[in-house]
Structures are given as C-alpha cells and as structure tokens.
Amino acid sequence: MAAITSEKPVVEVETEEDKELQSELKLLVERIMDKDVKLVGPALEMLKYIIRTSTTSMTSVPKPLKYLAPHYITLKNTYKNIPDGPNKKNLADVISVLALGTAGGDIARKEHDCLTYCLLGTLTNIGDWGHEYIRQLETEIVQTWTDEKANKSLMPLIKDIMHFNCHHHAEIQGCDLLMEIDQLNLLPEYVTEDTYERMCLYLTSCTKYVDVLEAGKIMNLVVDQYMKFEIFSRALIIALQLNNDDMVKNIFKACKDKATLYQLAFICGRHLYQVEIEPEGELSDELMSILGNNHLSSNFLTFARELDIMDPKAPEDVYKTWLEPATPYFSILNENMDSARQNLASSFVNGFVNAGFGCDKLLTTDISSKWIYRNKDHGMLSATASLGMLHLWDVDGGLTPIDKYLYSTEDYIKAGALLALGIVNCRVRNECDPALALLSDYVNNTNATFQIGAILGIGLAYVGTAREDVLNLLSPIVQSSQSVEILGITSLACGLITLGRSKHNVITSILSKIIEANNTEQLRAPYMRMAGLGVALCYMGCKDTIDVPHAAMDVLEEPYQTMIQTMLQMCAYAGTGDVLIVQELLRIVEERITCREERAKDKGKKDASHKKKDRKGIMEWDYCMGQAVAVLAVAAVSKGEEIGAEMVQRIFGHIGRYGEPVVRKAVPLAIALTSISNPQLSVIDILTKYSHDSDDDVACNAIFGLGFVGAGTNNARLAAGLRQMAVYHTKNPSQLFMVRLSQGLLHLGKGTMTLSPLHTDRQLVDPVAMAGLLIPLIALVDPHSLILGRAHFLLYSLVTAMQPRWLLTLGEDLQPLSVTVRVGQAVDIVGKAGTPKTIAGIHTHTTPVLLAAGERAELVTDEYTVYSPTLDGICVLKKH
Fold first, then answer.
1. In a shared domain, residues 123 and 237
2. Which has the closest alpha carbon to 378: 799, 792, 797?
3. Which residue, 211, 253, 220, is CA-closest to 238?
4. Measuring CA to CA, which residue among 81, 867, 124 is closest to residue 96?
5. If residue 877 lies in a helix (H) or strand (E), which one and from where to where?
6. Where is the domain boundary, 270, 292, 314?
7. Is the pLDDT assigned to residue 606 strictly greater than 60?
8. In 444-590, which ranges are continuous DSSP H helix?
9. Residue range 164-215, pLDDT digits in tens
10. Rounded to whole angstroms, how far apart are CA atoms 408 and 415?
C-alpha cells in the first residue's frame, strides 16, 4: 500500500524586491503621519502612484494592498487628525482603495469604508484604481441606496462610474447598477452607437426576471434606443411583445426606407398583427398585401419548387405499410382495414401532408367524390374540409375547387365545404372577404351541421382580427343557441376572432349561457368545455385583466369552476414564462380533491353504470378535470422560456406517476406542448413509454403528442417508432387512428412546416398559433368525447399554427433572391465579451433554406444589408 503523504501549504517566499517594497511603504506611511506638512503631500502622491500601477488588473491581491493592510487602522486614525485640504482628500482616496482588499476586514465592509472614504476623497479619475475598485463601489452604492433625494451626494459618483463602465467594455455592469438603484432613466446619455446593441440585448433578456411594471419600463427604454439609432425591426419586436398598438404605429410612421418597411410588414404579417397603414399610393398597397399574407401561398409554392417536392403524396406513402411485418395475420387484417375510421384518418393525413400544395392523389383527381363517400356521416365533413388544407392560403385559386361541393345533396359534405372555405382563408386577409360572403348565409341555418361548418369556418378565416361585423353576426347565435354543441363551437369561433381583445359584449353573452347551464346536465357536456375555452381565448395575453370573468366563475359548481378559471390563466399568461403563475397552477394540480367521493355517494348506481357503458354520451363527471387543465396550463405558460419549459417537464414526470387518472391523460399532451415541432430524444422516449400505457386514453394522447413533437420535421427515428406502434396497436382502432394522425402531422407539408408558435428567432410567441394548439389539447383531455367521437373536425384548428419553417430571402422588388448563408444551432450571446459567434455547428447553404427548431442563419458575405433582426422567416435584403 502506497504511503499517504499530506501536502504542505505553499509558503510564499519573499524576494529582495518584496522586502524593499515593504520598507518603502512603511517609510511612506511614517511620512504621512509626520507633523511636517511638506512631507505628507509627496508621500501621499507616491503612495497613490504605487497602488495605481498595481491595481489596474487584479488577478490576485496586489502586493502594495497586502503590505499596507497592517497600517489600515493607523491611516484611518491619521485621517481624523489631518487638517482639511488636498492632503486629507488624497489620504481618503488611499483608505478607500485599501478597504477594497483584506485590510479593513468585515468591519470595513459593514461600515462601507470603500464608498465612505471615496466620497470624502478627491472624486477625480476614480477609474484609475481599476475595475475591481469600481465593482466594490457599485456593490456598496446598492447596499446603501435608499432613494434619489436621500442620495443626492452619490449621483456625481454614479455618473462617473457609468462613464467609466461605458468606455471600458463594462456596459452590462453599468446597466445592473442603474437597475438595482432604479435609475435606468440615466442610461440613455451613456448609450452610444458602439454600445447600444450589447446593452439593449442585455436589458431585454433581464425583462424575464423582473415584475411586469419594471419589465414595461425597461422595454420602453430599449425601444427608444433602437428608434434613436433607427433599428426599426428590433424596436418592432419589443413593441409586439408589449402588444402596444400606438408604439407599432409610431415605428411604421418613423420608418421611411422602403425595404425596412417591407421587413416590418413581414414580421407583423407572421405575427398576424393588424397595423393601420395610411394610404399613400403603391407602397401602402404593397404593405397591406404583405400584412394580409397575400404573398404567402405564391412564396410557399416557389419554395416547394426550389426543394423539388411538388409531387403529391398519398397516405400510403406516409404510412409505408410495406415496411411493417408481412405476416399472414397482418396481411388479412390490412385487407379489411378499409373501415370508416381508417379512411377518416387517411383524409386527415392527406390534408396535413399535402397542405398548401394544391394537389393530392385523393381529392383533386377524378375519383375525389368516390373518396369522400368512402367516409361515413360526420367523417364526410372532415374529409371534405381537408380540401381547405390542400389549398391553404390560396384564396384566389382554392375557392373554385371547393365551390362545387356547396351544391351537394349530402349535408355533411356541404358542411365540410363550408369549413374548407374558412380553412383556405385562415391567416390571409382578402379585400373581397369571400369567407364572410359565402359563409354568412349558413350561420343562422336551421340545419345544425351547416351551422357548425360555417361558424367554425368563420372563426378560422377571421382568427385574431377582432372584426365587429363578424362578431355581430355570431353574437346573436350565442344568445339564442339551444344546442350545447352550437354554443361550444360558436364560443370557440368568437374566442378565435376576438383573441386577446376582450370584447365584453361577446364574453358576457357566453358567460351568461354558461351560468344558465349551472347545476344542469348541460354543464357536463364536453362542448361546455369548449365554450369555457372560447371565453379564455378572448383574454389571450391579457394577463391581469382576467379578474372579472375569474370572479364570475365562482358561482359554478366543480370541476367546471376550476376548469374555466384555469383556462383563463392559461390563455392570459400563455408564453410568458411567469414563474408565479406556474407555481399557482402547480398548487391546483397538487391539491387533493375530496368532493369527488362525497358527490359520488349521491349518485344512483344505475346512473354510474350507464356512464361506464356509454362513454360517447354524457361526459364522466370527474372532479379532477380542473387539475388536468391546470397541467396543460403549466405547459402553455412556460412555453417560450427554455429553462422553465425544461423544469416543468421534470414535474410532469411526477404527475404522470402519481396523478389521478384524468390528470395523467393530460401529462403526455403537456409534455408535447413544451416541445412542439422540436423532436428532442428525451421527449420522444418519454412519450413512447406513455404510448404503451395500460390506460387507453393516456396511450392515445401520448401517440398524438408524438405527432405534435415531430410536426413537420420528417424525423426518421420518430417515423420508425410510429410504424412500430401501428403494428402494436393494430387491434385497437382508437390508438391506430391516433398513430395515423401523428404520421400525418410528422410529415406536415412534406416536412416544410412547423406548428411552433415561436417565431423570429424564438423572440415572439404567436397568440393565433397558441390558440389553435390549445383547442385540440383541451378537447383531448377526454379524447373519446370529442376528437375520437364526432368532433374530429376540431383538429383543423391546427391550421392557425401552420407556417413554413423557412428562410426565404427577397430583394427590394420582393422577388426571391438566392444568397449563401451559414446555418447552425443558435448560441446565446447575451453578456458575452467581444464579438462571440452566434451559431455553432455550421453548414453552408443557398437560400431558400429549411430551418429546424433552435437553428439560426447568418450571411456568409457582407454583400447585402439585412433589415430583419435575424435571418429567419421572410427576410428582405438590399445590395450594398
């Protein structure tokens, strides 16, 4: 056994130079204490010179500070006896610097000697003492700060410190100081053309960690700086985060450059943010066209031709059934797979895969009507509505192929055509308003099937517009509706149209109908959940303004009360990453529900057995339903904040193991929502485990979650996993239906689209996309009552979230322009020194380019000026 030797502490050997320095410092201290005034001044100057030359860089404690430590108390006592004058101030400077080191110890720090003696000193060239001295002063200023009036004496020093920081690459340190003492209003005078970018980027990142009022102040300051240096696109992003109409208008007014205006319009168009442009000839027409996304279809088809993916795909090309095990048992089973449910799944898959391409192998061919009739009853509605997906965004070219189905004698086909008309117009603004013209006639139809198709179609066509004329058309239907189904769909449509604008007349109508249904069987209907979500969507992104509807819901019985109140919080704070709201929602999830057992005693046994038998009838009255919605709400709120999303994923693991059955159903959906169109291996593995759960509903939701996670990515690993699941769940029609849906979502737009609500380098959360994602997720809390029942058409709400995941570069003439770009994983450069690389793992491509989740692009050369904040989405370039 080897002998264990103890390491001896390293003893610093003093050199002759060190001994000489010690004796010199001792002599200088003695001269400072001397009664001869002529000796004191030169001694102090010499001492200051020795300290200054040793403290410019403090990688270790400078020797002069170390050797002067024993004389610290002596110098403090000497200071009291020196008469007022330059010598006294110079000595105060020396004591202030000595307090920085180990000289004063804890007492010096408690009494803030560094700051106290600095204020008593010369207060000139304080930066000459070095960065560490400035940092100590900042710390003590923050510790002693009360308010501006009480600390007037500190203001000159603070200004000196800020001047030093901004001229010595310590701008972020300066920002921290002003934020700590609530004096950010001083910052603009120190922001220069060289420092604004770094400072604004840091300040913007700080808004996640402060309260709402403070965040608002910081963002307004940042916008002012961007406007000062005419960086309009970055200013616009902050204005959109603030949801400030006046600020957005001012940015458009202030900008005079045509290419920059086009870029601003593309950002607003992607966010579906309405901007009023004053009519000024051709430019304003072009801007209105961009804001209305009228270029989206033509640009997407150009993009598809560049990638050479125009050939239509059939559902079989997606399923790749020839790769599944070819045993006699499976071959016999596959021959009999032409069931209505599987044909319905194929209709959805066909719509998702060929979305936006305008052609397919099922509906745009001569056998199109035959395919629709291979679906049964309500299946025909969704099969016909998939035509809208095929002609997505193409308002001019898509109406004609759909129009012929409006003359069908089959009610479901006609209703599907009405829904298809709404889908085609989704996210696109057309001057002719074809959706309103064609659908308004059917809104008040006595046929409920037509009403559903027309109302949901209008909701999708005018999502986020808050148009009064459209809401006035739907509002009377809410008030007069006798059917819970019509109330639920109309409420959703109103919520989609209003989206965050909180139109009180519509909300009041829906709330009064919900309250009317209190203590009745109607409140238990699945569509009442959708009505509640409709109210919540009206408050999307409204944060604190939900108090009134939240209080109004107190009259409702559980679990509906908790459910709708949680939905309100979910929508109001969606994508904010608000930690306090997440904690509040988790508290709801953790609460033990006791009333469920008590209420169950009052129920007759006959009624209970009836519920077990008929799952498609009345919703099982589960008192944990509110908790299930809270789980989804946690995911929705943490979306957009990476650290928060990662943390809640761990929490979902515990809920999935120990939660109530209905709460467990929501866990796979919540996990999927935190990672939409971003197939991380860890998330895929978790959802794959859930997809084999003993609870059929949990398995169904996990399989659908896999489709959400892989949406539009063509992820090979996920595709192989879904093929294996198709074999595993062959005998289970519900799970197999979900597998097919997920396969369709995985190949969304042949792998060119995304469902992620995050855009513009993940800085903005699109509220329209978020709303479209929440509808199927809330419906799937009890999958058999809606999506796996007769309301599968609710899946078409995903159309609001569908966007190409591209980088498309255009010239000033708005024509495609091919440039060479580097693409790689985005790197966070906030607060990093120098000019760090913004991407890692670089690949060089020529635009247009497909961008995966978390990727960023940058130009290879400086040949073009970029007007967008980052190369993402549609970017306008101008040659130098």
1. no
2. 792
3. 220
4. 124
5. strand 873-879
6. 292
7. no
8. 448-461, 468-480, 484-498, 504-516, 526-537, 547-552, 560-572, 579-590
9. 999 988 999 999 999 999 999 999 999 999 899 999 999 999 988 888 889 9
10. 10
Token pair recorded at residue 318:
């997606």
CA distances from 220 to 70, 107, 774 (A): 50, 41, 31
What pLDDT is stored for residue 520 in this prediction? 82
Tell me the longest C-alpha to C-alpha distance in the chain. Answer: 115
Given this model, what pLDDT does residue 104 score? 58
Q: What pLDDT score was predicted for residue 505?
A: 83
**Tens-digit pLDDT profile for residues 832-864:** 877 788 888 889 999 999 999 889 999 999 899
Given a contact cutoff of 8 angstroms between Cβ atoms, the answer to whether 299 and 286 are in contact is no
Q: What is the pLDDT of residue 616?
A: 40
In a domain, 695, yes or no: no
| Whole-number Å distance between alpha carbons of 528 and 514 | 7
Asked if residue 41 belongs to a domain, the reply is yes
The helix-helix angle for 434-443 and 468-480 (nearest 10°) equals 20
User: In this structure, is the dihedral angle defined by the CA atoms of residues 839, 845, 849 and 851, taken in order, positive or negative?
Assistant: negative
Q: Would you state the structure tokens that stand for residue 837, as one six-digit string? A: 């690389």
The per-residue pLDDT for range 431-480, each reduced to its tens digit, is 889 999 999 999 998 999 999 999 999 999 999 998 999 999 999 999 88
Task: Give the whole-angstrom CA distance, residue 190 versus residue 196.
Answer: 9
Q: Rounded CA gap, 794 and 661, in Å?
A: 24
Query: How many domains does the chain fold into?
Result: 3
The residue to which tokens 């002759």 are assigned = 16
Q: What is the pTM of this model?
A: 0.89
Domain boundary among 272, 292, 312: 292
pLDDT value at residue 704: 97
Residue 169 located in a structural domain? no
33/127 same-domain check: yes
Residues 24 and 137 in one domain: yes
Half-sphere exposure of 442 (CA within 13 A, CB side): 28
Domain of residue 69 covers 17-144
Residue 44: name the closest of 100, 131, 121 by CA.
121
The lowest-confidence range among 30-44, 241-255, 782-796, 839-853 is: 30-44
For residues 128 and 22, membership in a common domain is answered with: yes
**Helix 86-98 to helix 37-55 angle, to the nearest 10 degrees?**
30
User: Nearest 5 degrees, angle CA 211-CA 214-CA 220?
Assistant: 135
Candidates 137, 429, 398, 143; CA nearest to 269 is: 429
Within a domain: 162: no
Cα→Cα distances 225→164, 187, 253, Å: 20, 10, 16
The neighbouring-strand residues paired with 807 are 849, 873
